[in-house]
Amino acid sequence: MKKLRAGRYAVIAQEYEKETMPLEVEITDNQISQILPQEPMIPGSLEESVFTKVPQEIIQKQSIDVDAITGATHSVNGLIQAVSTVIEQAGGDPADFKLHSNSKNSDPSSKTPDLADPQKTFASWRNKPEQVVKEYHTDFLIVGAGIAGLAAAVQARQLGMETIVIEKNGFVAGNGGGVEGIFGINTKMQAAAGIHAEPEDIITKEAELGQYRADGSFWVDLINNSAANIDWLVDLGVQLTNVDDYHGTCMFPTFHWFKGGFASVGYAPYMKKQADKLKAQFLLETAATSIIYEDGIVKGVYANTPAGSIKISAKATLLATGGVGHNPKLLEAQGWSTKNIHYCSMPSNTGDGYQMAMSVGAKDFLKESPEFMMNYIQALPHEGVHLYIDPINGFMSLPAGGPVVFVNQDGRRLVNENVKKDNLLYQRMAIKSTRVTYEIFTQKIYDQITKDVPKADQILAQAVKTNDGDSLFKADSFAGLAQAVGLPENVLVETMENYNSYCERGHDLEFNKDKDMLLAMKEGPYYIARLDPSNLIGIGGIGSNQKFEVITNDFTKIPGLYAAGMDSTMQYRDVYTITLGGSACAHNVNSGRHAAIHAQEYLKQNN
């Protein structure tokens, strides 16, 4: 082993989403003695978890082969690479600091076959582990520490219930960390801004957009509780900055922005601080692997930890695991194609709560629940969880539609390409019914859509050149586009000629697209791009009542079991109505908070 030169070394660790953390690494007596972050970190965040826990392990073991932190692989790898760089700068060989293999937790998401008989299909989620290394007992167990789980934890402790929160990741917030804001109506912030809306107008519009398929009482409860829930959050220290209509996409200016534009900044740190102050017990890197169901009552879960399996006995259990948005088999069961899918969700959102609930006979709403599914173009830049807000490839830009043309596998138009004006998530709904869908646009249209994006033309030219996934082609004619992707040449040419005639007369004779979106495509170059799915979150799946008690097919509650956050959301059917911006986050807070309130009532009745 080469001797290391003592000293302090400055290095930059690469994190997720191209963020960085400057570090100072100290070498003393041929050992790594300190690894010190040089910037402040948000308490309880992924970043804090990585840059406190992993350096301690590296220093203790004198090895860069450290245990992974669930949900933080990219940042852990960036830290390891930074330390490896320092070892080299000090004259050493990183290979000398690889002493043992990484240990990894088992992944319960492998248990995801078809949904023919959910209780039988997911029966493995009731298995007992062969060995339990530790047992816990509590009043209220919360599975998941995202938006809903944190709200439930604070409310439960305010009510005096002994509370344990388990979280698969090594940090709190989970997928909810990327949430930008929360819905509220007639709040103090709105009053200060001179904003007023009638609850019945919103409830009526939501029912209309949902084709009157949901039980509207869920909307009534959510909307009528929204202002009180926001007051509660603000009293707890949650930071909200302003209220508007979320980039002009909402029917009403009801979107309350979190400080920093994300819940990981404005919500999670403050709620975790309150939960800690109230002495809720958090077990991180603890993944539920099966549910305890005895005598028709849910009595807790078994969970996997770095030290082995544990048993948590609870008088009431809340599932708040964030939905199914990162589980391809469950997405396919909903009817979505997952070929070439890009995930904007946390890898931990694999439907654990849904599968546990199904294993004890819960009512299955998965096929009727919506996904936050959008379009993206594989050849264009698409890294990271924030693809959805990318100025070129995001859900409000080029692949979302507008003055472009969508055609199916037969070369025919299939939808009003500007349907996003009614609901941003309508951009993908019709595509669910096709084998493949392509978007056609010209250079002029692209320049119009990306006029405020620096170097947009260079980005497009590079994308055509590298053509990731064979998903983007350029041609001088419509026939050339058809040949590039294998569409029927005569059909596509006819489709585009008809479309151009609609543009000339200012009236779309097929889908009645808005006149200002009818831009004729008579000058090349022409482009054709395959529209692939990009999923942000999964919404719902577990049937529940207004008390957030999990129900069976006959609407009988399953004693001791509750569902909140993205595991429930009974107010939606098939499509998330993003026209009411922040309603999912509002539901997360409302369901987490009120599940805890009703769980306390259940405990009083059964003790």
UniProtKB/TrEMBL annotation:
Its EC number is 1.3.99.33. Transmembrane segments: none annotated. It catalyses: dihydrourocanate + A = urocanate + AH2. Residues 100-112 have a biased composition (Polar residues). Pfam families: FAD_binding_2, FMN_bind. The keyword Ribonucleoprotein does not apply. Residues 94-119 are annotated as: Disordered. SUPFAM superfamilies: FAD/NAD(P)-binding domain, Succinate dehydrogenase/fumarate reductase flavoprotein, catalytic domain. Its cofactor is FAD; FMN. Keywords: FAD, Flavoprotein, Oxidoreductase. Residues 15-90 form the FMN-binding domain. It comes from the Bacteria. Belongs to the FAD-dependent oxidoreductase 2 family. FRD/SDH subfamily. PANTHER family: FAD-DEPENDENT OXIDOREDUCTASE 2 FAD BINDING DOMAIN-CONTAINING PROTEIN, FUMARATE REDUCTASE. This is Urocanate reductase. It comes from Lactobacillus xylocopicola.
